[in-house]
Amino acid sequence: MNRRANLPDSLGTGRWPSLAAAVPMLVLLALPVVALALASSPAELAAGARHPLFLPALGLTARTTVASLVIVVAAGTPLAWWLAASSGRLARGVEQLVDLPIVLPPAVLGIALLQTFGRNGLLGGPLEALGLQVPFTTAAVVVTQVVVASPFYVQSAAAAFRRVDRDLLIVARTLGRSPAGAFFGVAVPVALPGLVSGAALAWARAIGEFGATLLFAGNLPGRTQTAPLAIYTALESDVQAAVALSLVLAAVAVLLLLGLRALPGGRLRRVMEAVAAGAFRR
Amino acid sequence: MNPTWHAKVRMRIGELDLDVRLDGGVRPVALVGPNGSGKTTLLRTIAGAYRPSAGVIAVGERVLFDSGRGIDLPPEERRVGYVPQGYGLFPHLRVLDNVSFGLAGSSQRDNGGRASALAVLEQLEADHLAERWPDTLSGGERQRVALARALVTEPHILLLDEPLAALDAAARRTMRRRLAERLEESAVPALVITHDVHDIVALNADVHVMEEGRIVQRGPADALATHPATEFVAEVFASPLAARGSRLRR
């Protein structure tokens, strides 16, 4: 797959001038990562990793993000499928709504969640009657992650479903499959690369969630203090712990990025290439 | 000729206002018409993907759709073999799994399914492709695999949307002959969309000409050539049959 535009020379701006113009942005992107990597010696990092905040925060991040990812995929897939199949004004409106958490400032989202689940919020009464309290609990962490991460999955999944040739589904039906059978037997496998990359983006966003969590779930060690919040707390007392945690999160993010680039080989890869080549679409 | 299937369909989809009546026997029926005349929509409707606002679709003794009697079988119960334009092979499945996709139990690799899928592939001289991926096949190979996949479920009618259009001229000549033989052997009625008079002649098909959602003329190709009802029919049939060998499109 060649993604370069290959502009003819007469239209290009020349290789070296365009690189020179690109340098400031490159430096700005690369320098913080380099600085983070150079910030500590291995011994200091090891000491930072022994900080009492470190492991509980990482563990909580792992548990909550896996839970929110499961919810995002389970609830987001039907929504994405509906969006892909619909073209009316309602669907366009829903699409805007799905994108809202991306453009809303996290602090605003935190307040909005409090207004929804808080004691005086929209659902406060019913939740209290059931004896459930959401704000400042681990559940609030998961709810926040679901809200901020789901747009990334839903949009990517909807785009992937849209690329599934509807004739494939008709063929699957005429070959004896029920609507659900055609969905799981054809639509999901054909759209799988898009579903997986959307899930990876959503997961990365959930891992990094900070602002809305701070407002809606608080910063309680062991209950709502995820890794980004622990970094924030550690920075006040132990910079090395903050750097060590940051490096772990950066490593996870880089691994996710690399994983996206080289999705599991074999079948998934083949499908991706086929879809990219448009070999099965008119 | 005794019709073994007939379709009377009235519906509106977007800009398209479809109101047609057509039927056929064991001899293939060719559906000819300009782009946008509703041919593919009609095929998909017979397959059960769209619901007509009124009409009857019956194949043999079985009524697939009858608006008056409230009958509307889902696609999976219609026993139609649908081969879409571009063949619609499942890109995530090897050829053998594509062909056995429609076999009962859906445990596609069970021995019975595997054997019957291989048998149909063999009849179409495509058994050597069984372990290949669809995107590694040539156009002609894809067409045979798609046909095998449709035939393996023993459909009561075949719906083929431009089965030869994706092929280059040489492959098209060979595949046209093979398709004609195959349809004659299987004795399954077929409704075939095509743009090419040579396909129609090779398939010995009865022609229905469709324009703007209506059947404007039907009959054998030579009758259409001598007495074309519309400009389109004249363009498609009169001159090419007068000077056989010239190609219509592509």
Structural features, described:
The complex is a heterodimer of chains A (282) and B (250). Chain A has helices at residues 15-38, 42-49, 54-85, 89-103, 106-117, 124-129, 138-162, 166-174, 179-208, 211-216, 227-237, 239-261, 267-277. With 282 residues, chain A is an all-alpha fold. Chain A has a single domain, classed as MetI-like fold (Orthogonal Bundle). In chain A, helix 8 packs across helix 9 (179-208). Chain A is globular. Chain B is of the alpha/beta class. Chain B has a domain at 5-89 and 156-242: P-loop containing nucleotide triphosphate hydrolases (Rossmann fold). In chain B, 34% of the residues lie in helices and 24% in strands. Chain B is built from eight helices and eleven strands. Chain B starts with a strand and ends in an 8-residue tail after the last helix. Mean pLDDT of chain B is 89; it is low at 245-250. The chains are: A mainly alpha (282), B alpha/beta (250). At the A-B interface, helix 8, helix 9 and helix 13 of A face strand 7 of B.
Provide a quick synopsis of the model:
The complex is a heterodimer of chains A (282) and B (250). Chain A is mainly alpha-helical and 282 residues long.
Query: What's the CATH class of one domain in chain B, please?
Result: Alpha Beta
Q: Let me know the number of strands of chain A.
A: 0
Average pLDDT taken over every residue of chain B:
89
Q: Profile the largest sheet of chain B.
A: 6 strands, mixed
CATH domain topology of one domain in chain B: Rossmann fold
| Most extensive interface between two protein chains, with residue counts | A-B, 30 and 31 residues
CATH superfamily of chain A: MetI-like
Named CATH topology of chain A = MetI-like fold
Taking the sheet with the most strands of chain A, its summary is: none
* Proportion of helical residues of chain A: over 70%
Tally of contiguous helical segments of chain A? 13
- Total number of beta strands of chain B: 11
- What is the chain-wise order of helices and strands of chain A? HHHHHHHHHHHHH
